[in-house]
Amino acid sequence: MNMMSEPPAKEKQKDSAQILGDQAKVYAARMRLQNAMDQADALDAIREIAGNLIGTEEVAVFKIDKKRSELWLYWSSGVDPNKHSVLEVHREPRLKQVLSGKPVFRLRLSTENLLSTDDPVNALIPVLVDGSACAVIVLFRLFPHKAEIEPVDREICEVLSNCAGRAVEPHQSR
Amino acid sequence: MAKKILLVDDSTTTLMMEEMILKQRTSYECVTAKDGLDAISRAVVESPDLVLMDVVMPRMNGFEACKRMRTESSLSQTPIILVTTRGEEEYVEAGFQSGCNDYITKPINGFELVTLLQSYLGE
After folding, report:
1. N or C, fewer C-beta in 10 Å, chain B?
2. Starting from the edge strand earliest in sequence, which strands make up the sheet with A70-77, in order?
3. Percent of the residues in chain A that have a pLDDT greater than 90, as a whole number
4. In Å, what is the CA distance from A91 to each residue of A65, A87, A115, A117, A140?
């Protein structure tokens, strides 16, 4: 037995508090997006969820132009919009997976960036409307004390994927 | 009688999450405020046993609100925990200079939050 490990009861208490905390984050994210009053509020909800629940103040939303096979910057917070105005799908192999509806996350020890930008990209999240991706949320640099995208963050990203449609499609129902 | 906590944040998402965690894991009563100014008036009226307050807020930030709370005789000894997005030393130091007792970084970890509050208020 490892003498440094915590007693089982304390460990169990820690686990259940952790699980509850994670559930609270996912629930709060879903409620915030579903109760967004309008498009502007839905975009603000994305900013709030990224900053308060995931741990990044650098976030952008790109709309998909399928005909031109590119994504153009629709909204951003904390990043220079001039540096990220257009993403070309043929130059960004990771985007193909995202356009099929699946998020992509940067692994902790990976040195490869998810996009060909100077700024580190930690997550690419498709925004789904009627089952298909109409936009992509990009999470850039995490807070310095936040090492990586954690399992609960992936659950929150799934909520963003399924509930953030109003941020880009204003007539999308709640 | 249940201990009372004043939760202060301009983010409804954060307030919702904090309330959920505390209501399910503790017997503390929660009251809320949306910015520093609101927090001071709520704190004077509610006399909370502890204040958990965000730093970056409209109208009045957490540092300033903390300083002003310390000048109120009824709040001068109330534990104040600041919630920051930055864990850098100078930022934390600014928090302590404003009169806070402790700080916790965003994104909040449920277990750390409950443990920290219990260390001030008991279980």
Report:
1. N
2. A86-88, A70-77, A59-65, A132-139, A123-129, A104-105
3. 55
4. 15, 8, 9, 11, 18
Chain A residues touching B111 at Cβ < 8 A: 14, 17-18, 21
Whole-prediction pTM: 0.89
Structure tokens at B68: 């002003």
Rounded Cα–Cα distance for residues B119 and B123 (Å): 8
Interface check for A32 against chain B (CB to CB < 8 A): the answer is yes
Candidates A14, A24, A51; nearest CB to B85: A51
| pLDDT tens-place string over residues B51-70 | 999 999 999 999 999 999 99
Dihedral through CA B7, CA A143, CA A79, CA A34, nearest 10? -40
Does ipTM top 0.85?
Answer: yes
Tell me which DSSP letter residue A124 carries.
Answer: E
pLDDT at site A1: 47
